[in-house]
Design brief:
Layout lengths: L17 H4 L14 E6 L4 E4 L3 E6 L9 E4 L20 E6 L5 E7 L3 E2 L9 H5 L1 E9 L14 E5 L16 E6 L5 E6 L15 E3 L8 E7 L5 E8 L7 E6 L9 E2 L15 E10 L5 H16 L12
Antiparallel strand pairs: 1-17, 2-3, 3-4, 4-7, 5-6, 6-17, 7-16, 8-13, 8-17, 9-10, 9-16, 10-11, 11-12, 13-14, 14-15
Length: 318
């Protein structure tokens, strides 16, 4: 797989509109597609009620183990200002945004979508490696109801919920992408073998300066494949050079359910560690893509969402 270019064949990632296929060179040979385990695309697979409130976001990856990401009311707390009523934990579908070439996005403001298969992403942080890409627009993070400024607001995560009522073993093991309340990007993996939740060794803090709020970006994260010590790397609008990296000691504790808009299936405090902003696309591969492959996927996303004669809104290094 490492000897094969993606050839920007990612245009075949489940778009049906004819015009999208013309943006890139589609080939029939793309071995990397077998490693695609998550393709959440706001243009496809979105179920709404009340006109725009999202209840389900369906994974478009082939043979996906985690299929539907569903809204839940379980654990919703009225201490969060935006969650005073039942049903307000649903993201909002925003259609035809000019900033991203007319594509859709989902607005998350202390909302979550959860997949119930707690084994769907096993093997990735325990040796297989992973690479993810988010086409994302962060708002200002934080606000009333959040726990405190030390905790990041995650746009995805699959941490084990070691707190009550689940009491899953493994000290919140999992991986995630998030923003601190001051806007810094923070991604990481936690191997679950330390008694301390954040010890800077078994839970490295891989962070980068805050990208511009209310602007679209392509943010990427990668954990190296293999055992022992591997690299965690965070990329902001540039797949050729990591904005931040850190050693990570691989262990054998697996993550839990994947959540979108928050770090975990935290039914004891839904809305309190949740992302504020928009997601148009979230791709995840169950291996560490090499640099050529990362550039190819990035170029596909950049061309699809930001390149057009009428648009000057391509992601910058801000």
């Amino acid at each position: 797989m490492k000897n094969c270019l993606l050839c920007v064949a990612m245009a075949s990632l489940y778009f049906t509109a004819e015009g999208l296929a013309q943006k890139v060179n589609i080939t029939t040979h793309s071995p990397i597609l077998k490693d695609l385990v998550l393709d959440l695309n706001a243009d496809l697979g979105v179920t709404v009620e009340d006109q725009e409130m999202v209840t389900t976001w369906r994974n478009q990856a082939p043979q996906a183990k985690a299929v539907d990401f569903n809204h839940t009311e379980e654990g919703r707390t009225k201490t969060v200002i935006s969650q005073k009523e039942l049903g307000t934990g649903r993201p909002i579908l925003k259609k035809n945004a000019d900033e991203i070439n007319g594509h859709h996005s989902l607005i998350f403001e202390e909302n979550e979508l959860i997949n119930e298969n707690d084994e769907a992403f096993h093997g990735m942080m325990t040796g297989g490696g992973y690479t993810w890409f988010a086409v994302i627009k962060p708002y200002k993070q934080g606000g009333p109801g959040k726990i405190d400024s030390r905790y990041p607001n995650a746009f995805f995560g699959c941490l084990r919920n070691t707190a009550k009522p689940q009491l899953e073993q493994g000290q919140y093991a999992g991986f995630w992408g998030s923003f601190y309340t001051d806007g810094r990007v923070y991604m990481g993996s936690r191997n679950g073998i330390s008694e301390l939740v954040r010890d800077a060794v078994n839970t490295p803090e891989v962070e980068a300066p805050a990208p511009a709020v209310n602007k679209w970006h392509i943010i990427m994260g990668r954990q190296g494949s293999g055992q022992g010590i591997v690299q965690l790397e965070l990329f902001i609008n540039d797949p050729s050079e990591a904005a931040s990296s850190h050693d990570y000691p691989v262990a054998d504790v697996e993550p839990s359910r994947m959540a979108i808009g928050t770090e975990r299936n935290a039914i004891n405090h839904q809305g309190k560690e949740s992302f504020d902003g928009e997601l148009a696309r979230l791709l995840m591969f169950e291996t560490a893509l090499d640099q050529q492959e990362m550039v190819a996927v990035y170029d596909y996303l950049r061309q699809l969402y930001f390149e057009s004669p009428a648009s000057n809104d391509a992601p910058s290094q801000e």
